[in-house]
Design goal:
- The complex is a heterodimer of chains A (560) and B (155).
- Chain A has 560 residues and is mainly alpha-helical.
- Chain A has helices at residues 2-17, 21-52, 64-95, 101-127, 144-174, 182-214, 222-255, 263-277, 293-305, 307-327, 345-367, 370-376, 380-410, 416-445, 461-464, 467-497, 524-548.
- Chain A has a single domain, classed as Cytochrome c oxidase-like, subunit I domain (Cytochrome C Oxidase, Chain A, Up-down Bundle).
- Helix content of chain A is 72%, strand content 0%.
- The longest helix of chain A has 34 residues, at 222-255.
- Chain A is globular and about 65 Å long.
- Chain B has 155 residues and is of the alpha+beta class.
- Chain B folds into two domains: 1-35; 41-154, Immunoglobulin-like.
- In chain B, 17% of the residues lie in helices and 40% in strands.
- Chain B is built from one helix and eleven strands.
- In chain B, the strands form two sheets. In chain B, strands 1, 2, 3, 4, 6 and 9 form a six-stranded mixed sheet that branches. Chain B has a five-stranded mixed sheet with strand order 5-11-10-7-8, with no helix packed on it.
- Chain B is elongated and about 65 Å long.
- The mean pLDDT of chain B is 94.
- The chains are: A mainly alpha (560), B alpha+beta (155).
- At the A-B interface, helix 7, helix 8, helix 9, helix 10 and helix 12 of A face helix 1, strand 8, strand 9 and strand 10 of B.
């Protein structure tokens, strides 16, 4: 009881006094790396966009596929992983009474492992020995150092995941019978997914690919490797999405002066996204050989099921807007939008991110059904889809978070000037993405393939008809690089130059008359078992078939 | 957990949409025979040239308005390439890769299949409209990936 009391006191002190210096430095470092990655990855993205439209011929020492591999790795792995971990470690520190020293140490070791891993992976890319894309499908084989780097990144992420588990377990021991604060609950879900989702890719890289790329074993089972990759690949993007969702449920209501929507529903959505997530990756293999039609049909359900929690989220978000506006005296059916703080970047960016998720999610549902996927698989449509989901819904939410998180960890404030810059940045990004992602979707429907440098296939008439769309793509990409520069400038300013002062960590309260959240939501052990059962349902049949009915394996190839 | 009536309606509709998608996907796959390419035969990826039917890649007439195309994909070409079929013919493609992962896509049709080394993929299309169709590889396969294409002429 004594410890519980002192813990509560520490919690309160922590909230009033702001984040401790050590915890702030940790998150600052993660966020700094994330935005450095945005700058670098953004520039590489621009180079690709201009080349793809036929506007820029790359010099002989710089290959399109080399640039594309680096762009994917830097933005999909570095930006998102570092932002997510930095953001959730600040959340854990803020809501659970400061990080435990050993947890902080683990997060720093994770930081080091990820940086070393990233450098090891990038060296062969620069040398031209790893132009294999961030999906690195065997039997294309990069230099072993590339895979060792990837393995270290995964181990670094695991360190952070276990650090978070220790932190949450410690709080629960000291606060028996209580619900973990909502952001820490989101963090728990995210780190569970990060750990279990990266187990398959760790097996692929460490057990299968590394010995093969060194030549210790001669051949590899390409379908097993590919299946393990996608069990991870799609989970990864949904983790960043779940991170963005945490800000939608918890932070956005506070910024508009409202209350959080049902705590129970929020936690049920998190559980749903965690339990059903890993199996979703299978829809990347809808037109693969070697998998029975019935299995593919079952997987349509597994993929579409992930849409359900998102549809719950959509309802909850608009309900919060309406309720908040009504409290402020707004009447009428859709009058709520008049009461929203559109001039506040902390609201505007995540709001547009949410709206973007309506077409993004609808496109996702469409393309995970078998026949529709066959129309767009591996075309530019897919690239448009993940630039709308990741590049808009997720990354714009991250941008919105940065306008309070960076001042919070730096003991500075968001000035009206930077807020205005943020609003302008948000609109530039929005217009750029509409151009780029819109053009990608459209030209993809016409058949233009993804991951292909500028080509007219020998002046083929069909390929030439795609040119106007690719030009739109380049226009969008150019606007986006302006957005990147403004955003990076804003982050650097808020981190090092903005006026000193207190910034609040915005967490909305629950409704006054909220019904009590049932305690079964805290039983993560149970939810993990359910998750593993779902994973087994999805993957035991295809993996067993690939192993039992395996063709002779493939030797490594370097085709670039 | 108490829920508002309109929330219940919304979630029921949401679940209904997912079920409708499931129904149509299943109906198209199993009743209309439109399932995605899912052939389960295997082959030694290093002995494609010696293994039937890929020892003789080509276009074979197998019936009235019906053709079979035995095709290998390799960095960075399709074999056979640039072939013709009469308008209105149904073409059955049998595909495999001799090296890395490739994609088989014919722009303007629903022909789209992953072609993996070690696996034989099959896909069928009826070509009604005359014209020149662009065949391209839509899975990154190396330095010459952007040049990996051919055509099917329908007369």
């Amino acid at each position: 009881m004594q410890t519980a009391k002192s813990q509560t006191f520490k919690d309160k002190a922590n909230k009033v006094m702001g984040i401790s210096k050590e915890d702030a430095l940790l998150t600052k470092s993660y966020i700094f790396v994330a935005f450095a990655a945005l700058l670098l990855g953004g520039i590489l993205g621009l180079i690709q966009g201009l080349n793809r439209a036929g506007l820029l011929e790359l010099p002989s020492w710089l290959n399109y596929y080399q640039v594309l591999t680096a762009h994917g790795l830097i933005l999909v792995v570095v930006l998102t992983a570092f932002f997510t971990i930095g953001y959730f470690y600040a959340s854990l520190s803020h809501t659970l009474g400061g990080l435990l020293p050993k947890v902080r140490t683990m997060a720093w070791i994770g930081f080091g492992l990820k940086i070393v891993g990233f450098v090891l992976a990038v060296i062969p890319i620069i040398m031209g020995d790893a132009s294999v894309m961030y999906t690195f499908y065997p039997p294309m084989a990069a230099a072993p150092m590339f895979y060792i780097g990837l393995a270290l990144i995964v181990v670094g992420v695991w360190m952070c995941a276990f650090g978070a588990f220790i932190q949450v377990a410690n709080w629960r021991r000291n606060n028996k019978g209580q619900h973990v604060p909502i952001l820490a609950y989101f963090a728990t879900g995210v780190f569970i997914l990060l750990f279990f989702g990266s187990v398959p890719v760790a097996i692929e890289v460490i057990v299968m690919i590394i010995p093969w790329s060194f030549g210790w074993v001669e051949t590899i089972n390409v379908m097993v490797a590919r299946t393990l990759f996608w069990a991870f690949g799609h989970t990864l993007v949904n983790i960043w999405y779940l991170t963005a969702v945490s800000a939608w449920y918890v932070v956005v209501p506070k910024i508009i002066g409202g209350k959080r929507w049902s705590d129970t529903l929020t936690r049920v959505v998190i559980i749903g996204l965690v339990v059903m997530n890993i199996t979703g990756g299978f829809h990347h293999q809808i037109i693969d050989p070697g998998i029975a039609e019935a299995v593919k049909f079952m997987h349509v359900f597994m993929s579409l099921a992930i849409g359900f929690p998102s549809l719950m989220t959509a309802w909850a978000m608009f309900a919060v807007f309406e309720k908040t506006a009504r409290k402020q005296g707004e009447k009428g059916l859709i009058g709520w939008y008049k009461k929203m703080p559109w001039g506040d970047v902390r609201f505007l960016a995540p709001m547009i991110a949410m709206i973007a998720f309506i077409p993004a999610g609808a496109g996702g549902i469409a393309q995970s059904t078998n026949q529709l996927d066959q129309v767009v698989h591996n075309t530019m449509w897919i690239v448009g889809h993940f630039h709308l989901t990741l590049g808009m819904s997720v990354v714009m939410t991250f941008f919105g978070i940065s306008y309070w998180l960076v001042p919070y960890i730096s003991n500075r404030v968001l000035t009206p000037q930077i807020n205005k810059l943020g609003v302008i940045q948000t609109w530039i990004w929005t217009i750029g993405m509409i151009f780029m992602s819109g053009a990608m979707h459209w030209v993809g429907l016409l058949g233009s393939p993804r991951r292909t440098s500028f080509t007219t296939y020998g002046d083929n008439a069909t390929a030439l008809s795609w040119s106007p769309y690719l030009m739109c793509l380049a226009v969008g990409g150019t606007l986006l690089i302006i957005g990147v520069l403004l955003q990076v400038y804003a982050v650097v300013n808020m981190m090092f130059f903005a006026p000193k002062g207190e910034t609040e960590f915005p967490i909305a309260e629950e409704e006054e008359n909220a019904s009590k959240t049932p305690y079964w939501t805290e039983r993560w052990g149970l939810w993990i078992v359910v998750m593993l059962l779902v994973v087994a349902m999805a993957y035991v049949i295809p993996l067993t078939e690939f192993i039992v009915n395996a063709p002779p394996g493939s030797p490594p190839y370097k085709t670039w | 957990m108490k829920m508002h009536l309109d929330e219940k309606i919304w979630l029921t509709i949401s679940f209904g949409i997912i079920m409708i998608f499931m129904f149509f996907t299943g109906y198209q796959a199993f009743a209309l025979d439109m399932a995605p390419p899912s052939n389960k035969e295997i082959i030694d990826p290093q002995k494609v040239d010696q293994t039937a039917p890929f020892d003789k890649p080509g276009v074979n007439k197998i019936g009235e308005n019906e053709y079979e195309v035995i095709m290998t994909l390799q960095a960075f070409s399709f074999n056979p390439g640039n072939f013709e079929v009469p308008a209105g013919s149904t073409v059955h493609f049998t595909l495999t890769s001799k090296d890395v992962v490739h994609g088989f896509e014919v722009a303007g049709t629903n022909l789209n299949a992953m072609v993996m080394p070690g696996h034989i993929q099959k896909i069928t299309q009826k070509f009604n409209k005359p014209g020149t169709y662009l065949v391209l590889c839509n899975e990154y396969c190396g330095a010459g990936h952007q040049a990996m294409s051919t055509t099917i002429t329908v007369k």
